[in-house]
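User: Quick sanity check before I run a bigger batch. Here is a single chain. Can you write out its predicted 3D structure?
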Amino acid sequence: MIDKIQQPIAFEMEAFEQKFKDSMKSNVQLLDKIMQYIVKRKGKQMRPMLVFLSAKMFGEIQEPAYTAASLIELLHTATLVHDDVVDDSLQRRGYFSVNALWKNKIAVLVGDYLLSRGLLLSVNQNQFQLLKIVSNAVKEMSEGELLQIEKARRLDIQENVYYDIIRQKTASLIASCCAAGACAAGADDITIEKMRLFGETTGIAFQIKDDLFDYGVDDVGKPLGIDIKEKKMTLPLIYALQQSTFLEKRSIISIVKNNNNDNQKVQQVIDFVIAKGGIEYATQAMLTYRDKALKMLKDLPQNECNASLAALVNYTVDRKK
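Assistant: Done. Predicted structure follows.
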């Protein structure tokens, strides 16, 4: 599916591989070794795809689009390396994390290096609008993460706060990919904002899908209840609590707070969410955001890149992992 979506930008994605590797090089041997390790374990590369599809929808790909894609990947990779330190996570995408292999001190410095490489890449090429778009996303991601930590202490999140968290934490980066792609193609400010909103809407659908995985929607081969164990209040649980009595609510919140490492208790929360219709409610919300994103594409140039973006939106909600 991803290969088919990538078809209109297959050449650009291949060229990007080398440009991205070059942007990470360092004269410090240890740093260069870690950069090679990071490049080797990259994921589906959804963010560069979004940049190139968004750019090519408005014209031919020029050098600013490669700068935008590299900048976003560098800053995103920096946040992932720092996240693994914050979460004390020893694995990412089935590989050892940087902090697992080289310890926290080096991992933090590696994240800082990636961040500075991204900033320098855009400054050296005078791509200040791109830098503004992407820096704003990094700011929002940090704020979203901190808002989630703040709210996790009380475990009484309303839907509007949940949407604030995922809009900042997840959707802001996807939004910046689409805005940066349009910007790199020379689109006007109104069009750039349209693309940013399209990316944000797609990102919200993407995150709700991730939240649903935690309740066994599709067998993704990962342990269930990870979000519950991490005291994250996601849409299925928020809705289920809204439908419950005072005593039910108190009991479930007590489990999430105090028994979140007891697998039997976690299963009790999952069963509660299913019984209260939390899965159906969150699924419907996800599909509503999908439809909003697809509708936005109808007001934009109709070409093969537009069709690929539509396919990517559908893949977001249909994916199995």
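The domain at 2-318 is CATH 1.10.600.10 (Farnesyl Diphosphate Synthase).

User: Great, the batch can go ahead then.
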